[in-house]
UniProtKB/TrEMBL annotation:
Pfam (any one): DyP_N
Keyword Metal-binding: yes
MF (Gene Ontology): heme binding; metal ion binding; peroxidase activity
DyP dimeric alpha+beta barrel domain span: 33-171
Record-stated family: Belongs to the DyP-type peroxidase family.
PANTHER family, sorted: DEFERROCHELATASE, DEFERROCHELATASE/PEROXIDASE
SUPFAM superfamilies xref list: Dimeric alpha+beta barrel
Cofactor dependence: heme b
Name of the protein in its database record: Peroxidase
Region (Disordered), start-end ranges: 421-458
Domain Dyp-type peroxidase C-terminal per the UniProt entry, residue ranges: 241-409
Length: 499
């Protein structure tokens, strides 16, 4: 059997055996872990990080093989999601199992380790401008061999399923050790009044995803605003990698990035107010005429892109759209070049931008007693909340690392400076450089590292004028990376082979 990776996949056609290639597609979907091609959708998750004792390889392998019976296959996940849409009956507990490069070593299965150099070296060794490893949370600073993801729609059930898995870990006689017994990586979805998922700063999150399933592309095209300005479809090749230890020709897995990102919500919201007032005073603007938070994120709190606002300060009432690009905002006067969504996904600004995108599967962590959208400062947390960033891809260097180093952390992407400068933006009508006050655009104000780099410029007259840097306009430092690792989600047949 062979599988065409240079296309999107219609899983429903595969399930209906509508085409000759359906047999290969079904075999792949039954051996591929869920959550890769489509998010599992549970509101409550737990990430358990574990280490194996290399002196007890047989027992550690048996444990990994036993978890294979709990892991959800992609087809199973998709069928349960379809049933939920029709009946309202939830899909139950979701489980996934990931291995790090050192995890393959500890299990004595170097023969089955995927070949990606970044994966084999591990996140700690890569040049990502991250905080030093000795500043990471302790369980991330040492070797992590594997991660188990558990999800459920009910918090109490998530907790119970997590605790049962911990008991299994503790029953291995030391062959498997839990590294994070405090469960600081339990995910708890946040939602706004409209029911959309938000992150702790209060903005709709996760709306812009690359889509590898044709059903999702069709849903975007026909029911969620269209794909005329931005087609989110990607080929399977952007997510899937042959699994060296799989038992079929169509055994695939995917590289997985995990990063714990702590958010200082009060600091972020305070800086929003400070910078708004500063811009209004410096440029003689009316009070409350500058929405710095929307410029920083690139979307209003309700998820609508700032480029779709008819005038500054007017928030379209429609839900969060994904059918947009920045073609009519070449100078960054609506969505600045430093805006988070433009830094992390420049869309048609960059010809090959889609090839660098990942399938993001993040979820907020921590608990809140306040309303994230209540416009208060005094009740906002300064820590112990944030985002568990998770993403699947087929090439760590080309996708996650490129996005983080070439876009997010790069104060010169995109460069709006002198004619002829790398990345300079040129007015096609006149040949003149657009808005050249500073050749730098600054780092991503949300997840860019390190903090404090200059160059960010913010709209002070929507669509007409940017700030010119007269004052201190830096917006950064409110998200701190606390640790993480690179993993691989192997095929289910590989996991079962270790029993």
């Amino acid at each position: 059997m062979s599988l065409n990776l240079d296309q999107t996949l219609s899983w429903s056609n595969a399930h209906a055996a509508a085409k000759p290639e359906a047999a290969a597609e079904l075999a792949m979907l039954n051996d591929l872990q869920g959550n890769i091609l489509k998010g599992h959708g549970r509101d409550y998750t737990s990430n358990l990080f574990i280490a194996f004792d290399p002196q007890k390889k047989d027992a550690a392998r048996r444990f990994a093989g036993s978890v294979a019976d709990d892991v959800n296959a992609a087809l199973d996940q998709l069928l349960k999601a379809q049933a939920y849409r029709k009946s309202g009956v939830g899909g139950g507990t979701f489980v996934a199992f990931m291995l790090s490069s050192t995890g393959y070593d500890a299990l004595g299965r170097q023969d089955a380790r995927p070949a990606d150099p970044a994966f084999q070296e591990g996140m700690k060794t890569r040049q990502l401008n991250d905080p030093p490893v000795n500043a990471w949370e302790p369980h991330f600073a040492g070797e992590i061999h594997a991660m188990i993801l558990i999800g459920h729609d009910d918090k109490a059930t998530r907790d119970a399923e997590r605790d049962k898995m911990v008991a299994r870990i503790n029953s291995t006689g030391g062959a498997v050790k839990l590294l994070n017994p405090a469960f600081g990586e339990d995910g708890n979805a946040l939602r706004n009044a409209a029911g959309n998922g938000i992150e702790h700063f209060g903005y709709v999150d996760g709306r812009s995803q690359p889509l590898a399933l044709q059903e999702d592309v069709d849903g975007e095209k026909n029911g969620k605003g269209g794909i005329s300005d931005w087609d989110p479809s990607i080929h399977l090749r952007q997510l899937l990698v042959p699994c060296p230890g799989g038992k079929h020709d169509v055994s695939f897995g995917s590289y997985f990035v995990f990063r714990k990102l702590e958010q200082n919500v009060r600091g972020f919201k305070t800086r929003e107010e400070q910078l708004s007032r500063q811009l209004e005073e410096t440029y003689g603007l009316a009070a409350n005429s500058v929405d710095v938070g929307a410029s920083v994120v690139g979307r209003f709190e309700n998820g609508m892109p700032v480029t779709m606002s008819p005038v500054e300060g007017t928030i379209p009432a429609e839900g969060p759209s994904n059918n947009f690009n920045f073609a009519d905002d070449a100078a960054g006067r609506k969505c600045p070049f430093a805006g988070h969504i433009r830094k992390s996904n420049p869309r048609t600004d960059t010809a090959d931008s889609k090839t660098h995108l990942m399938a993001r599967r993040g979820i907020p962590y921590g608990t809140r007693t306040d309303d994230p959208n209540d416009d208060r400062l005094d009740n906002k947390p300064t820590g112990n909340v944030g985002l568990l960033f998770m993403a699947f891809q087929s090439d760590l260097a080309k996708q996650f690392e490129f996005t983080q180093t070439k876009w997010v952390n790069n104060a010169n992407f995109r460069n709006s400076g002198k004619p002829g400068a790398p990345g300079a933006l040129i007015d096609p009508a006149t040949g003149a450089a657009l808005d050249p006050p500073n050749p730098a655009t600054g780092i991503d104000p949300v997840i860019g590292q390190p903090a404090g780099q200059s160059g960010q410029r913010w709209p002070v007259e929507y669509g007409k004028r940017l700030s010119d840097g007269r004052g201190e306009e830096d917006f950064s430092g409110f998200v701190i990376m606390r640790g993480g690792e690179y993993f691989f989600a192997p095929s289910i047949t590989f996991l079962k082979s270790m029993r």
